[in-house]
Amino acid sequence: MTSLFEPARLGDLVLPNRVVMAPMSRVRATADGLATPSMASYYAQRASAGLIVGEGTHPNAVGRSNPGTPGLHTDAQVAAWRQVTDAVHVNGGRLFAQIMHGGRVSHPDTTGLRPVGPSAVPATGEVFTPTGPQPTPVPRALDLTEIPEQIDSYAVAARRAVDAGFDGVELHGANGYLISQFLSSNANLRTDRYGGPVRNRVRFAVEAVAATVDAIGASRTGIRLSPGGVFWGVEETEVTALYRELLTELVRLEPAYIHLEATAEEEVLLELRRAWPGTLIMNPVLPMGPKQTGLAEAEHWLGLGADLISFGRAFLANPDLVERLRNHLPLAPDDESTYYQGGDDGYLTYSTYRYSA
Ligand SMILES: Cc1cc2nc3c(=O)[nH]c(=O)nc-3n(C[C@H](O)[C@H](O)[C@H](O)COP(=O)(O)O)c2cc1C
After folding, report:
1. Checking CA distances to 264, which of 80, 86, 147, 239 falls within 20 to 30 Å?
2. Residues 63-68, mean pLDDT to the nearest whole number
3. In angstroms, what is the span from residue 311 Cα to ligand 1's centroid?
4. What is the set of domains in the chain, with CATH numbers?
């Protein structure tokens, strides 16, 4: 079986190990969506990952889901990311930006704009705003003529990501955000070529990947997916058919990887593994579920044919996760109360393993 600590190729990169840091929003950016020196330190501390996938980053103003998330649509944001990408590279790491358009999971109090989505169907749940959590509003359904601009926002942000020094980008196609809303059968009620049968529901995702591949090249483009996931009220019918169709279309574009979450039965995920000839990053547990990804889950999925394994909470709490896993050292627990609280506490304060005599 492949070891977690063997090198791997990813696009044009050689990763020294197969441990990927999963994307995690930590809402420590400025009100203008600028990355900060603390963010540079946080990612630099974790540069021994084979690959870091950075936190969800909005490609335009309307796509911002939360106050405190960083953006990639202004020159100032590009300049601010430089300190982060430089810090990771100086420490020997590799960093992709996760491009996340929130779609209907957003709020006018955060963006000054009415959120958009495939249809005028609100998400379930409450979204963070500058004055605290509020119910998600009814989005404005995108007109057919507006869809190309939203698709292009991923490609333009990808170009900006490369300008900012990122090694590539991951499109956020998971967890109930815009791409996932188009894949969904209850958030997407469109009757045009972007809604209805599976070949239409995958179109937005495929066109977003195609535009990004055109902009920065296939070897620097990945996509994250959560087959069957039910985040923010999205539901998907015909999960296997939907994702088989999506992968069939994506194969032609040859992106560097797909990043799957364990949101469906293992049997379904294995079928998708077989349908995908390229690199598979597997995130082996249900996001926000009770169980975290650890060595056992990673080895299970390497045995099932995953190429790389992503770790979220374990990496959040253990900057030296690779060394800890390699040496079977205990992992520090993460503190949920500091995920989104801002500041350096619970952000820069997790230490490397301290050996005692
Ligand atoms: C604080 C936090 C923030 C997260 N933010 C994102 C995000 O921005 N984008 C994303 O795709 N997933 C996000 N996730 C989900 C993780 O990438 C991962 O799928 C999840 O934590 C499960 O993996 P784990 O058991 O290894 O933590 C987040 C998870 C956590 C804990």
Report:
1. 147
2. 97
3. 8
4. 8-338 (3.20.20.70)
Ligand 1 atom closest to 313 (CA)? 27
- Check whether 288 has a pLDDT greater than 80: no
How do residues 266-286 score in pLDDT, each as one tens digit? Answer: 999 999 999 999 999 999 988
Residue 239 near residue 226 (C-beta atoms within 8 A): no
- 102 pocket-lining for ligand 1 (C-beta < 6 Å): no
Dihedrals φ, ψ of 140, to 5°?
-85, 130
Q: 69 in ligand 1 pocket by Cβ < 6 Å?
A: no
pTM for the predicted model, two decimal places: 0.98
Q: pLDDT tens for residues 187-229?
A: 999 999 999 999 999 999 999 999 999 999 999 999 999 999 9
Instruction: Report how far residue 237's alpha carbon sits from residue 245's, in angstroms, rounded to the nearest whole number.
Output: 13
Distances (CA, A) of 89 to 22, 26, 181, 256, 350: 18, 21, 34, 20, 21
Looking at residue 342, the DSSP 8-state letter turns out to be -
Q: Which atom of ligand 1 is nearest to the CA of 311?
A: 26
Q: 353 CB less than 6 Å from ligand 1? A: no
